[in-house]
Write a structure and sequence with these properties.
The chain is of the alpha/beta class. It has 4 domains: about 20-150, 3-Layer(aba) Sandwich (Rossmann fold), CATH 3.40.50; about 155-220, Helicase, Ruva Protein, domain 3, CATH 1.10.8; about 230-320, Zinc Finger, Delta Prime, domain 3 (Up-down Bundle), CATH 1.20.272; about 330-385, no CATH class. About 50% of the residues lie in helices and about 5% in strands. It has 19 helices and 5 strands. A 5-stranded parallel sheet has the order 2-3-4-1-5, sandwiched between helices. It is flat and about 95 Å long. The N and C termini lie far apart (about 75 Å).
């Protein structure tokens, strides 16, 4: 069977790679490593279709090493053992072994530990690929013996270059693949070269005529947002959402919320974050914001999507446009720090409850007046911290 277009167009050497200039340009790390010809364990961290597998294969080829590729999704202990045995045989023949582990974050700690001694002694040069933040997903000893290389989503111009290269290889004329079709393919790819080429291949099958914007849209159907509710993208977008509200940019806040909802995020999660935001970032500047946020959470619980989207968008807009105050958050932090520093100070006698005669005789509650707004001159804090004020600069 003929290979998919994306596989046929995979670069075979560094000079053919499009994009990732931050690691492949003159004097950049990956280019320098390949030029030096010295193996070095790497962790490629980047989104799908950014070139992780391609770069691993090119590096192994440049080093004239035996390239062994496994997927952490399907590989088990037997696969690891077989790789180590193969690497030992290669070493006796004077050949380096490059082990490429796709989705290395899917290996558990014990499986990652199994590679450590072989990476340490140079038997294996490990190249891992992950779409998740390796700080959380790859064990520290393995990270310390590797270099993390960050790959960025390909830009629209990069994707256009890749599509034009594929069009030339497939002998597609400008009439068959007009500029509007190329732009649409690049626009909906999300920086993923594999998606762009797969959509082009399907569009070629759907029509023998011009691959127009409409044909591309038909081939692509609905683009799946690049969002993982358990991964880093989840935290990046919710962070951008909150910081946009904090910065009073309602447009940005609504954009990030739309992305979360379109990707299937739990609307209650978004509503909960706004309840927190109402006290943490708006606080005393507009206390009614908390009522709105709680009401929004209740509406989300009782109505659900899609109708509760109106409540979410209204609340986010109000939160972004409201005046901001960190006074409550700052006072809370100061109170918590003081309570940690002085966890056992006795309550002043005049503030203590006095349900018995003995307690009254001992001075409990002495001189305290039960009236609204009574400001006792003796104060309300223990003597050791009586001058503390959480609400002064």
């Amino acid at each position: 069977m003929e290979q998919p277009l994306a596989e046929r167009m995979r670069p075979r050497k560094l000079s053919e790679v499009v994009g990732q200039e931050q690691i492949l340009g003159d004097g950049k790390m990956v280019s320098q490593l390949v030029k030096a010809g010295k193996p070095f364990s790497l962790i490629f961290w980047g989104p799908p279709g950014s070139g992780k597998t391609t770069l691993a294969r090119i590096i192994a080829n440049e080093l004239e090493a035996d390239f062994v590729e496994i997927s952490a999704v399907t590989a088990g202990k037997a696969d690891v053992t077989a790789v180590v045995k193969r690497a030992g045989e290669n070493q006796r023949l004077g050949q380096q072994t490059v082990l490429f582990v796709d989705e290395i974050h899917r290996f558990n700690k014990a499986q990652q530990d199994a590679f450590l001694p072989h990476v340490e002694n140079g038997l294996i040069t490990l190249i891992g690929a992950t779409t998740e933040n390796p700080s959380f997903e790859v064990i520290t000893p393995l990270l310390s013996r590797s270099r993390v290389v960050v790959l960025e989503p390909l830009s629209k111009s990069d994707i256009v270059t890749i599509i034009k290269r594929a069009a030339k290889a497939e002998k597609l004329s400008a009439k068959r693949l007009p500029k509007a079709g190329i732009d649409m393919l690049a626009e909906i790819s999300g920086g993923d070269a594999r998606i762009a080429l797969s959509n082009l291949e399907l569009a070629m099958q759907l029509t023998k005529g011009a691959i127009t914007k409409e044909v591309v849209q038909s081939a692509a159907q609905k683009r799946v947002p690049g969002y993982d509710k358990a991964g880093e993208m989840h935290y990046n977008i919710i962070s951008a959402f909150i910081k946009s509200m904090r910065g009073s940019d309602a447009t940005a806040a609504l954009y990030y919320m739309a992305r979360m909802l379109q990707a299937g995020e739990d609307p209650k999660f978004i509503a909960r974050r706004m309840v927190i935001f109402a006290s943490e970032d708006i606080g005393l500047a507009a206390p009614a914001a908390l009522n709105l946020a709680v009401s929004t959470f209740l509406a989300v619980e009782r109505i659900g999507l899609p109708e509760c989207a109106y409540n979410l968008y209204e609340c986010a807009t109000v939160m972004a446009k409201s005046p901001k105050s960190r006074e409550v958050a700052s006072a809370m932090a100061a109170a918590q720090a003081t309570a940690r520093q002085y966890p056992d100070l006795p309550v002043p006698l005049h503030l203590r409850n006095a349900p018995t005669k003995l307690m009254k005789d001992l001075g409990y509650n002495e001189g305290y007046k039960w009236q609204a707004g009574f400001r006792d001159k003796r104060g309300f804090l223990p003597e050791e911290i009586h001058n503390i004020d959480f609400f002064t600069d």
